[in-house]
Amino acid sequence: MSGPPLYLDCDTGVDDALALAQLVGVGADLVGVGSVSGNLAAAGGARNTLDLLAMLGRPDVPVAVGAHDPIGGTFDGGAAFVHGENGIGGVVLPRAGEPVDGSAAELLVRLAHEHAGELRVLAVGPLTNLALALELEPALPRLVRDVVLMGGAALAPGNISAVAEANIGNDPLAAHAVFAADWPVTMVGLDVTMHARFEESHRRALAEAPGAVPRALAAMLDVYFGYYTPILGRPSSALHDPLAAAIATGQVEPTLAPVVPVEVDATDGPGRGQTLVDLRSRFVGYPPLPGTRHRVVLGIPDGFGDLLLETLLPLP
Question: What are the UniProt keywords, alphabetically (predicted)?
Fold first, then answer.
């Protein structure tokens, strides 16, 4: 395995499944996965994760079930209209493995101690588990190397409200705690993920691949493409979580990613869930600002869909 140890926190829907396959495809040192309610309930996300990891030849990776409800709220049932009733487009994977004992927050804290100063955290769902881990272990920001998350928007509109992106908006209190913690955060938000696309040609290539995993991913994409076609104007989809995974592993290097202050609106008003990104330094080239620790990805190279396809096609 290559690179530093990586903990993945996810709500395994279709794009989470693509990201998980991508991480295995690039040889990431995946040391643990936690599930959280978002695209579907946390228990269902853990099941999807376990089954896909087994197909990928990584049944050794521990998977823990995380928070069912957001902090201070109740899980709203998920996004079956985007990801299908089971979160992965109705595709039924061979059942394999069971979650480990303990919560995802507890798994994250344990791994942070085992890999102190080295563990990277990639979060591609609501940030509930990370916030709970911060409560369990206040020293967590000193133990974790950095956090890369798919969530938020700086200049782009939201996708569950005019200003809120789903992962942040589904648990704003947790997101507020994660952004306020004293650790480096890279925010991979809708500003770039909506421009990272899989086209019908990519889906067809996966469907025609020899491996069971690429073919299963292609089948999952049917429902996902159905959701995105009226939004994007053609059969295609955004690649939210895979882009965050590619940036976390260094497979993609952002073309613009200033380090600027970010806060999360956790109030009950119309701005609830908005990531308030202070871009006022843009006119002088984003000089370093003392005390800032939030890297906000605003630009990526072209062709990410092709790169992702190259990573997925050889999978078993």
Answer: Glycosidase, Hydrolase
